[in-house]
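Handover notes (outgoing to incoming on-call)

Open items:
1. RING-type domain-containing protein: sequence verified, structure written out, both below. Nothing else pending on this one.
2. Nothing else urgent.
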Amino acid sequence: MREALTQNRGVTVGGLPHRTMPGARLADLNSVITCMLCNGYLVDATTLVECLHSFCKVCIVQFLNTSLLCPICDVPVHQTKPHQSIRLDRTLQDIVYKVVPGLYQKEMKKRRDYYEKHPEHVASVSCPEDRGIVDDSSRLIFSPDDNISLSLEYCGPAGKKEQEGTPPAGEKSEEKKPADSGKQAEGGVPRRFLNCPAAFTINHLQKFIRMKYSVAPQYQYFAAVR
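RING-type domain-containing protein structure tokens:
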């Protein structure tokens, strides 16, 4: 298991130390991405509307069959229809799948294996993802080893895109071959494409750009995602 999501390393900008945000460790997030009923990572994260505590859907449904109190804070739920007090939390589930490497792929495989052994239950499940089928309608989750393609554009200090033929600060002027220039973005700005693993971080991207274009240390630049 990858214990650290990011690393905290100081960098120097213009000869002065530049403070970076502290790295977030996976262990620090366990309290909000694990289910206290099964002690595993959240799957089909479901939240109680009365207190906003979250659990696995299967875990909390089974728990409410025997108790009408929140497992964490003992807040009472709906007395006659307790299942009306729970809501699927897709945003939280997306976070869990994205910060825990390989969890989404393992869960989808587990579901496919189950329905292969129990085909009689397939008809009762309408959502493809609930059956472990990943298609265009599924959430976009990459494993660390998946290859992705990034589109890179240069923007000036005031947010204006650099005109074609004008290199960024620190970039060496050179004649660009048609095959190297790639497609043109709006406004005639040259666009670069980079194929990299999904585990490629913004920190890696910044180092890659600085080395590729020989950006001098005194120049400060940021890699923004949109």
